[in-house]
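User: Could you write out the 3D structure of this protein bound to cytidine-5'-diphosphate? I've included everything you need below.
Assistant: Certainly. Input first, then the structure.
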Amino acid sequence: MDKKELEQTLVLLKPDALKNSLTGYLLSQLSEFHSGLHFAGARIVAVNRILAEEHYAEHRGKAFYESLLDYITGRLHWEDEPWKRRVVAIVYQGADAIRKIRDIAGPTNPHVAREDKPGCIRALGTLVPIKDTAGRVISDRMDNLIHASANPADAEREIKLWFTPGDIPPMMHAYETEICDAWHGYADGRLFTQSEPGAICLFAPGDVAWRSDLETLRRLAGGLETAESLNYVAAKYLINDARIR
Ligand code: CDP
Ligand code: MG
């Protein structure tokens, strides 16, 4: 397979897509017949705060940020039924995967989507006003049904955030992996390099990890600066772990 065929992108079927039973429709729109793309990975994820913050790190501090975290963690759509709070996370693979899926998804803002690209997925979304404590509208939250990576750098960051190498068939790995030679654990936002009671195991010797994650952990353990945080590396191993809320 040449490099172009290996292009991958992350898709999230967001909580509003599940709530409105649009998952089948979305998967049809994205199917191999329509998009020419292939499944490389899929997970049902109850999004915790750590994962939500890492996924939307670029939007930290914006007026819609807190509301966006409530949206992606499913709190907004299932206030009283926490067990229903899920997204479907999918890696699609194939030539031009990023552009093709952004195209099928359409513009971020559902109103713009309806105007400029009727028929795209996000044209089925909605805008929800965000108010400050005084009741003034300060921004809009865009419930737009689907996330799709915007460019190759985002796709790599996002796929490695949501998926371990073991979630993707080895022949479909688009990024370098490495076999761990040391134990790494996580508790209360801290990294442990030796077995620690109560710590969640990230990886043990012999496990296959993203090479860039191991490089991040080595630098963190050495007290060096890193582009990504410990939470970024750990998040995919904490998914659906009952100890993390
Ligand atoms: O998802 P996309 O890359 O198209 O857009 P973004 O600008 O990276 O924003 C990420 C997500 O934040 C959007 O998909 C919207 O769900 C949400 N958003 C929002 O709720 N309100 C805004 N004013 C902008 C974005
Ligand atoms: Mg984006």
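The first helix runs from residue 15 to 19.
User: Perfect, thank you.
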